[in-house]
Amino acid sequence: MHKNVLKKHAKDGAIWGFIVLELVFFGIAGEYLSMTDTVFLAPDNMILLLKQAAPLGIIALGMTIIMINGNIDLSVGATFALCAIVMLDSMTWPILAPLGDWAIPFAWGLALLTGMLMGLINGLIVWKTGVDAFIVTLGAMLGFRGLVFMYNGEQPTFHLNWTMVDIAESKPLGIPLQILVFGVCVAIVWWIMNRTVHGRNAYAIGSNREAAVNAGIKVGPHMLLNYVLIGFLAALSAITFYSESGSVNPNDGMLYELWVITAVVLGGTKLTGGKGSIIATVGGILAIQLMRKGLGFIGADTAMVNLVIGSILIAVLYLDKQLNRKGEEELKI
Q1: By the 8 A CB rule, do 242 and 108 touch?
Q2: Which H, E and C letters describe 92-125, residue by residue?
Q3: 32, 49, 52 from 56: Cα distances, Å
Q4: Which residues of 280-303 are buried (b: 16+ CB within 10 A; e: fewer)?
Q5: Looking at residue 326, what is its pLDDT?
Q6: Nearest residue to 268 via CA among 230, 324, 308
Q7: Cα separations in angstroms, 123 against 15, 58, 206, 207, 220
Q8: Taking a C-beta distance cutoff of 8 angstroms, is the pair 168, 244 a contact?
Q9: Between 76-90 and 219-245, two packed helices, what is the crossing angle to 10 degrees?
Q10: What contacts 24+ positions apart, CB below 8 Å, involve 44-48?
Q11: Which run of H or of E encompasses 305?
Q12: What interhelical angle do 177-195 and 197-207 show, nearest 10?
């Protein structure tokens, strides 16, 4: 038992060790390879990195719950873009435009409702049809993206409200708002997964769905709630990002689902469900963002960044499979 606990802590802490290695490597490499005089480990650069990581990080929290539950959601990128379009465009609607700045909370609310509705659709189909979540959300990804392109005739959606920009750029307690929202989301989702019956049920369903049903857990409604939650978080992510930028392109959010899933898996969450950690997912998001920003800092192009992160993901999955195989062999002995 003691040996297994040590192994678990070692695996959970691996992502943080990897982050330290990234910081050391890019801190040193940046001095020799960077084309600017900027220091990679400068506090302002690290704060900017955290701010840029927040939108993906918020979605990754919901993806962690979904994957612990034994499911997946490939539609989060399209949901992210659709919620942003609804938020910005709704402020120009005849019913909201006369409200001026008071339209902002209504626009945010409509974006959140849109995200929850998209999650509800996914959850209901997975629950009621029994079709694999991968197939359902793959179809939803294409369908929701189609709505994004149809909304404004494939044109960008633009509405810059300076009050909303000021809110998005504010620094409560001296912390950029995006980072603060991400931190609050981490705390709430961690509490849900570690201190509530819903969280315990997520692990139980992901580990053995049949046993969970026999134990009286209502698997369908439970999955439905998780899909609504990830839809809410995708919308919240869109709000934190587009309240500042004020412009959405139809292609925005593409590949977000892959970046998010990569971060969650790097954090140690099993694709098959039953195992995962919210804090380790935060580590996965930071590792991904450090890699993207660090490689760009030393002159690598986007293709190289994708190649390196893809290779790392494959290596992590292979190592995780080998460790799990060894653990199963030990149990047999």
Answers
A1: no
A2: CCCCCHHHHHHHHHHHHHHHHHHHHHHHHHHHHH
A3: 30, 12, 8
A4: bbbbbbbbbbbbbbbbebbebeee
A5: 53
A6: 324
A7: 31, 19, 16, 19, 8
A8: yes
A9: 50
A10: 47/176, 47/179
A11: helix 302-332
A12: 70
Type and span of the H or E element at 228: helix 219-245
**Which residue do the tokens 């902002």 mark?**
104
301 band by pLDDT with thresholds 50, 70 and 90? confident
Per the structure block, which two tokens stand in for 307? 């190649």
Six-digit token string for 12: 């959970």
φ/ψ (deg, to 5) at 35: -90, 0
Residue with tokens 């300076």: 162
pLDDT digits (tens, 9 = 90+) for 219-268: 999 999 999 999 999 999 999 999 998 899 999 999 899 899 989 999 98
By the 10 Å C-beta count (0-12 exposed, 13-18 middle, 19+ buried), 211 is classed as exposed
Integer Cα distance of 103 and 91 in angstroms = 6
What is the dihedral angle through the alpha carbons of 192, 198, 201, 202, rounded to the nearest 10 degrees? Answer: -60
Residue type, 9: H
Q: How many whole angstroms separate alpha carbon 80 and alpha carbon 108?
A: 13
Hey, which residues does 316 pair with through a beta bridge?
Answer: none
Tens-digit pLDDT profile for residues 92-124 = 999 998 998 999 999 999 999 999 999 999 999
Closest CA to 240 of 121, 92, 83, 14: 83
**CA–CA separation, 310 and 290 (whole Å):** 14
Q: What share of the chain is helix, strand, coil (3-state, %, to 5)?
A: 80, 0, 20
Amino acid, res. 180: L
The two counts, helices (H) then strands (E), for the chain are: 13, 2
pTM tops 0.70: yes
